[in-house]
Amino acid sequence: MPNDKDVIDSFNLAFQPKPRSVVLATSTKDVQNAVREAVRQGRGVAVQSTGHGRFDSSDNAILVSTTRMRGIDVDPERRTARVAAGVQWGDVIAATAPHGLVPVHGSSPTVGVAGYALGGGIGLLSRSFGYCADTVLEVDLVTASGEILRVAPDENPELFWGVRGGKSSFGIATAIEVQLFPAAEFYGGGLYFHPDAAAELVPAFVQWSRALPEWFSTSLAFARAHVLGAIGNGLSHLLHLRCVSIGDEQESAHLLETLRSLPGLLHDTVDLKPYSRIREVHNDPVTPLPFTERSRYLPTLSANLVEGLIDAFQDDAVAPVPYVELRRLGGAMARDPLLANCVGGRGSEFTFVVLGSSDDSARARIDHAFGLGDLESAGQPVLNFQGEENGPDRVLAAYDVDDRERLVALKRRYDPDNIFRYGHAIAP
Fold first, then answer.
1. Side by side, which strands form the sheet with 80-84?
2. The whole model's pTM is what?
3. Comparing C-alpha atoms, which of 153, 208, 152 is closest to residue 176?
4. pLDDT at site 354
5. CB 340 within 8 A of CB 360
6. Is-cis flag, bond preceding 320, omega within 30?
7. Considering the chain, what percentage of its residues have pLDDT values greater than 90?
């Protein structure tokens, strides 16, 4: 068991993991041996592939790094991809796009497949095909007892329900199989607006997005201009409207014309693109940085919250300007999947995500400006965007009320000693 803490880094530089030991797994057997050794020593086990998901560990934890488990097996006939635990979404897209097939993936190519998918996964194609967890067909899982289980509809079906949305609460996934969908190209990119356009753009975006067909996905972000390069033109922040359509190009352009005609448009990158260029839609950072994060599902987006967003970004006291995103849900995400899982928040209109500075005073200003305390009653946290609010109560709050008792029972069955207690883990 190598002790190699220095090679493990988090994408979020504000929260560096500090495990007692690190196992650099290259196989399912390595993961199994690490879990068995942790149990023998009475220690907890954390798992990390790319470091995008945060976990805190200071109690003698063993960290299993799956970053070296990198296999991808694409089956174009079945439209599936079997993916090892350390694979990133950019790798999967590179392997599937030549076949005209794509997974339900996130906005960043550097996010790990396993944690994202098993945490729910709101993807750029989710309005068309559902949450990423809805597309998971099979999971190879190492449990707290050291067993290697095939988890699928016809084998361990109760665990199959819970692991798709339960993330790493019940074990460590060493491989997953996901469904692929036909999409050789897309109509999309970004519209970048001057921040002074917020008063007109934000309410227009909300109303416009409510009328979109489900093959058209969109989000609106208040983003730091410096991460967008020359587009910022000296501004501190911009409004970045993102679009991904897998429908007809002309019809998509017609739908977008309503917002393209608004004042304040600085730059327009929306056009027909090969799917291999999908990362250009969000232009997410690919290098680590420090940040805090908050999130909620919003069953409905109230006029008060829209007004609050606009007012906050016109308030010079809110500095540094945080990143805030409103992402339109609906479509296939609002429907029950063919194979039921425990992903919460179905039926919500939007997700609301705030990424801010790691500075304590900045966190307090963000909380005050965006009324995050008031959102407790408005919607559940989004599991994959749950940061310093982590903890057993906050994790369980991400699930629908009717599913919580069932999830705790599943945890008691498969991990009664809470070996997997780090990150977004359900407590027994």
1. 72-75, 80-84, 172-179, 136-142, 148-151
2. 0.92
3. 152
4. 82
5. no
6. yes
7. 64
